[in-house]
Amino acid sequence: MSAVPVIKLHSGASFPQVGLGTWKAEKGKVGAAVKYAVTECGYRHLDCASNYLNEDEIGDALAELFESGAVKREDLWITGKLNNPYHHKEHVMPHLKKTLLDLRLDHLDLWLMHWPVAFKYLQEVTQAANPGAAKVDHSVSIRETWEAMEACVEAGLVKHIGLSNVPAIIVHDIMTYAKIKPAVIQNEMHPYCQQPALCEYARRLGIAMTAYSPLGTGSNHSWTGGDVLLQDPVLAAIAAKHGKTPAQVCIRWAVQRGTVVIPKSTHDHRIRQNIESVGFELDEEDMQKIAALDRNFHYLRPNDWYGIPLFCP
Length: 313
Ligand SMILES: NC(=O)c1ccc[n+]([C@@H]2O[C@H](COP(=O)([O-])OP(=O)(O)OC[C@H]3O[C@@H](n4cnc5c(N)ncnc54)[C@H](OP(=O)(O)O)[C@@H]3O)[C@@H](O)[C@H]2O)c1
Description:
Belongs to the aldo/keto reductase family. The chain is an alpha/beta fold. The protein is 37% helix and 13% strand.
């Protein structure tokens, strides 16, 4: 199997370009998926979030992997995310400590502000943490949250901090006061949502970009409509030309344009297929055809979920 390329962050750290996504990876399946990905397929990057409600099972899998000697902690890149109801400065570090407890780790490699908006505090992390606008807490600024995240780096609980679901203007604002600059921006990116201007802006600032929902978040997007990415005829033709699948074309395209990419699967054959995408190359004509598919189409529509016209990353 080809080695997974890395992106060098401004800290000098190596950020593996393909990772395993874990959103909607149900308990009862996610632990086995993580173990298979790491031991059988060479994944060294896991994308987690407290909001996915599965970090405890991932933590058990990680403990098993470390105890068995299958992999060392320092060889894995583990990303977590600060959930919206914990943005107040008093809640940020305790929330990270809960994540570390669940994942059974003493630090994360990367911690992202999951969404740039504070929700009212909730004692327990639940999916109900994503209700409507009534839950927005207008008393907490992004600056307050970012500074509390910086304190977590200073405390040695996380090596890098970053942002998710942000437009360039929020990044610009944070850059005016950040003592610790964002290392990574994680946004929805795939051939229908390429975000070229944000990618260029991040490149100039030395911030790495991670593409989430790189396969168009699978078939579970009836709630947002739009064409099914993996059924796109242009992608199908490029896939056929290389003897690959449309999913592999999407992942390879993300790697080749210099982003990190975190496809999710809990099925062994897809977990393997996805990381094997690093083992072939798209030519210039393929890349141009894929560039022409951009339509700034988001499968994830938080505006609809939260009822707040705030999110246009
Ligand atoms: N920061 C954020 O706000 C945010 C938002 C969304 C996602 N994310 C992260 O990004 C990760 C990936 O995004 P996502 O989960 O939305 O969707 P995705 O990776 O675009 O797509 C996952 C879906 O595609 C299917 N799939 C996986 N590999 C496939 C293949 N080779 N061929 C055909 N189908 C395949 C999966 O099914 P099976 O599992 O059944 O194989 C699943 O239904 C998430 O898991 C999460 O870690 C972050």
